[in-house]
From TrEMBL:
Compartments it resides in: Mitochondrion inner membrane
GO cellular component, one term: respiratory chain complex I
InterPro entries noted in UniProt: NADH_UbQ_OxRdtase_su10, NDUFB10
PANTHER family membership: NADH DEHYDROGENASE [UBIQUINONE] 1 BETA SUBCOMPLEX SUBUNIT 10 (PTHR13094:SF1), NADH-UBIQUINONE OXIDOREDUCTASE PDSW SUBUNIT (PTHR13094)
Protein's name according to its UniProt entry: NADH dehydrogenase [ubiquinone] 1 beta subcomplex subunit 10
Main location: mitochondrion
Bilayer topology: Peripheral membrane protein
Keywords: Electron transport, Membrane, Mitochondrion, Mitochondrion inner membrane, Respiratory chain, Transport
Family membership: Belongs to the complex I NDUFB10 subunit family.
């Protein structure tokens, strides 16, 4: 009988997979989409509530994306003083995101819900 003082390759793989834990991070988790307000029955209050909460989450995420792109644009403009053509892709991306946010969110901004 031979006894080895070095860990076996299979044992090392098994041990490292146990130490690492799950392969995906919690912030990459995708949540189930709820039906939109136009898919809810008129007497289904829970469906309407869930649709409204989903809209609020979507609005918050879209707002943060627009704010992040605005910050990137401002940083690029400060770094590339006098050379805006280098920042043009970022500026275009920001303008597109801002327009999409306005189309999606500003139409119902008075009510603040769907």
């Amino acid at each position: 009988m031979h006894c080895s003082t070095f860990p076996q390759p299979g044992y090392e793989r098994k041990l490292s997979s146990q130490i690492e834990g799950p392969s995906t991070n919690w912030y990459h988790r995708k949540y189930r989409r709820v039906p939109t307000i136009d898919e809810c029955y008129s007497d289904d209050l829970m469906c309407k509530f869930e649709a409204n909460e989903q809209y609020k989450r979507d609005r918050e995420v879209d707002t943060k994306i627009v704010n992040l792109l605005s910050q990137r644009r401002d940083d690029c403009m400060a770094y590339e003083i006098g050379s805006q053509e280098r920042c043009q892709p970022i500026i275009d991306q920001y303008k597109e995101a801002e327009l999409n946010w306005f189309i999606k969110c500003e139409k119902v901004a008075v009510k603040r819900s769907v």
